[in-house]
Amino acid sequence: MAAPLFARLHPSRRLWPGRWLAVAWLLTLLAGALPGCTPSAPPPRYRIGFSQCTNGDAWRQAMLAGMKKELSFYPEVSFRIKDAKYNSALQEQQIKEFLREGIDLLIVSANEAEPVTPIVEEVYNRGIPVVILDRRTTSKLYTAYVGGNNVEVGQQAGYYAAGLLRQRGRVLEVRGAPGSSPAVDRHRGFAQALAAYPGLRLVAEVNSNWERPSVLERLPQVLRQHPDVDLIFAHNDRLALGAYQVCKQLGLERRVKIIGVDGLPGVRGGIQLVQDGVITATLLYSPGGEEAVRTAMKILRKQPFAKENILSTMVIDSTNALTMKLQTEQLGAQQQDIQRQQELLRAQRATYSSQQNVLYVLAAALLGAAVLGSLAWRAFRVNRRINRQLEGQNQEILAQRNQIMDLAEQARVATEAKLRFFTNFSHELRTPLTLILGPVEELLTNGQDLSAAQRHDLTLVRRNTHRLLQLVNQLMDFRKIDVGKMPVRAAQGNLVAFVRDIMDVFERPARQRGITLRFLPAEPVISVWFDVNIVDKVFFNLLSNAFKFTPDRGQITVSIQRVPTDKTVRVSVEDTGPGIAEQDQAHIFEWFYQGHQSAKGSGMGLALAQGLTRLHQGQLTFSSQPGQGSTFVVTLPEELPAALTTTAPAAPTPTAFALDEDLGAPRPALLVEEAAPAPAVTSSESLVLVIEDNPDVSAFLQQKLRPHFQVSAALDGENGLRLAAEAIPDLIVCDVMLPGISGLEVVRQLKQDWRTSHIPVVMLTARNAPEQQVEGVQQGADLYLTKPFNPTFLLESLRTLLANRDRQREHFRRELSVDTATVAPQRVDQKFLADLTAIVEANLSRAELSVEDVARSLGISRVQLYRKVKAVLGTGVTDFIQGIRLTKARQLLLDEELTIAEVAYQLGFSSPSYFSTSFKARYQVSPSEFRALHTTAG
């Protein structure tokens, strides 16, 4: 039938049956060869329903964006969303609608746990897999759970708050919606963490509906009731932003620290809030959209999956906010590349589909079918190659994401190790600096016979030692800023005069190099609250930097002016140097960064200046044009929060920096405070015990002290304690860093042992942080000196401590001279005297009472008792016993019923005559005269 029909359509051309069979065979072969013409089994399609409690906040939008991003890899999935808008009844109704419409899997994020649990259990019992996302239900009938551990989030917030407040302070909690599982779990974890720190107290709680307006409405009244709150923990970053706005309204934004939860990227996300300084930290709480879809696809494809998929959390603060932001931006850029490639793939697939339809229509045309078949075959190859590329890129992106997370963790660990290394290395440098700077200072001070060349060389050694000490101090400041342990103690002062004093140091090197140094204050007096130690380092670094890069006969201009609208003061340092290259401008405030144009300096000055300025609630900015110089601007607030201020006047403190050699003469580094010489002259009989593990430092101390004292030494704390108990020295010089028992522990044990509690202790250490000095004084140290130290100052300090001990000894003697011989046991030395007095009073009637008897009662040797009494009272034990008896005699003589002989025997005197002689020698009257005088007066 085919041949006659073809003949009728083409009457002018007759095809014989063989020709028609050949054409039919060719069309069949072509149809079989064309791609897509052979039907293949289509991939299974899945229907997933997502019941969301709300899509109205940024965190939920991030969750939804993550789902859509992951779903782009599964075109066979039909994904439907229903928004309950925080309505549990509406959410239950929407899940029922999913059941009626027919779904293969349900993803649900419950608005409230209990109301939604029954319908979720019904879905599960029907055999439909259920993935619980973020908010749990009260039942265990579900297929898988994806979300963070809210209890762990609360605990992490509590532990971070404890570290931030140093385990003491008052905390306020802004909770999420009552009854929601995240709010309940985060509160429980936060309360558990705070329970481990008795110094932290949760003073108030504020409920919210997870949105910022509820905080703006309810928090002000609570903060007015608790104005001394130190930290606010908000259950998400939106609540944290609201808490910051309330604190700013009440003037508390600089004192109160705020911790949020979510850690989302973006302009208004938690990471940006941390980077902008709006909140102190945020805890990463991943939305989990991608993981939920991946888990759902494993379930639908019958692949292995975990029932509990707990997303990890971490604290994001100023130390890692920038890293997190860069990582999220990189992942976003990679996702955009994936989307563009997927759009190209869809376009290719559309092209392929249209070509396939044309081939079906023109299959009867042999020539056209052949041409279109070739095009379709080529398109198929391109499509397959693109698919392979996309799969490879997807795997690469996943690997890169994991690698970025690993690198971030490695960077954090490496940074912490580097900081510990810098701190320990800085401490170690101070010991050799002590052995260099001490002898050099003494030679320059007392070396009368030095030649000019020798004095020049020693001055050069001292200047470079000061310069090395400057670098050590900068490293220590770097560490203190990084861990937040550099306190601000601001006092009100004239900033104009303060900056002028700093500029005076640069006058001489400016004249030597022909540099014009201009100072342009807008007003003669500008009163500002500032910490002289911090601000001095900031401006000294900026001026040093300007001098390094300003050529000879250049110009440096420093100007100061108020900005009344912002209540700030602006100080600018402008130079005429080569400027900053464009490729360096983004990095000049990074630690240890050195620009491409010059390798001058250590790369710490500008980074330290910026860190100190931010610590002072200020801002350091710059502008620069290559070839036209640079201008650095420091903006400081006129006033600071009360927590950062002190009532002490702003004293002009010498700077801790020294000028580099190429800038001129060095500025003296502050080693020790000047002390007036003690008026008392110390006898060479005084014994000083030196406890120092470094043999060179120990030998140096012994050499300096032996001309003035008797000296013994110990190389560790254990031997030092033993020598102190045996020899009872007059004074102890002890290092803090000792092998075995630390110096702080040595001081504590010395002050708790009544045998050695009276001995003054001077601590020498390379640890110069204020909190470390406070720790040493709290343990009982009488003086705390940091290395390197001035030997003359150390010697005068020892003499002053011994003179103070002589005055204390006289005080104890006066206490024992009053009518009541017993001393109240307030301190360790007073308790020793009280115990000694009690033993003597209990044995007053024993004429044979000896020093050995008293020492045996106290549990010590006769020599230790003698040295202790001699050190505390300046007298012997026998004289002390005699004094107690005579003091008691004054009381007994007032009792007229006792004869003088009875009083003498009752107090252990061998005879009445010996009693009378002793009494008269002490009080210049005989016992009978004393009784007659006082009974007559009575």
Automatic annotation (TrEMBL):
SMART domains: HATPase_c, HisKA, HTH_ARAC, REC. It catalyses: ATP + protein L-histidine = ADP + protein N-phospho-L-histidine. Residues 383-410 form a coiled coil. One of its GO terms (molecular function) is sequence-specific DNA binding. PANTHER family: HYBRID SIGNAL TRANSDUCTION HISTIDINE KINASE C (PTHR43547:SF2), TWO-COMPONENT HISTIDINE KINASE (PTHR43547). SUPFAM superfamilies: ATPase domain of HSP90 chaperone/DNA topoisomerase II/histidine kinase (SSF55874), CheY-like (SSF52172), Homeodomain-like (SSF46689), Homodimeric domain of signal transducing histidine kinase (SSF47384), Periplasmic binding protein-like I (SSF53822). It comes from Hymenobacter edaphi. This is histidine kinase. Pfam families: HATPase_c, HisKA, HTH_18, Peripla_BP_4, Response_reg. Its EC number is 2.7.13.3. Residues 834-933 form the HTH araC/xylS-type domain. Residues 424-640 form the Histidine kinase domain. CDD domains: HATPase_EvgS-ArcB-TorS-like, HisKA, PBP1_sensor_kinase-like, REC_OmpR. The chain crosses the membrane at residues 358-380. The keyword Chloroplast does not apply. Residues 687-802 form the Response regulatory domain. Keywords: ATP-binding, Coiled coil, DNA-binding, Kinase, Membrane, Nucleotide-binding, Phosphoprotein, Transcription, Transcription regulation, Transferase, Transmembrane, Transmembrane helix, Two-component regulatory system. The modification 4-aspartylphosphate is found at D735. It comes from the Bacteria.
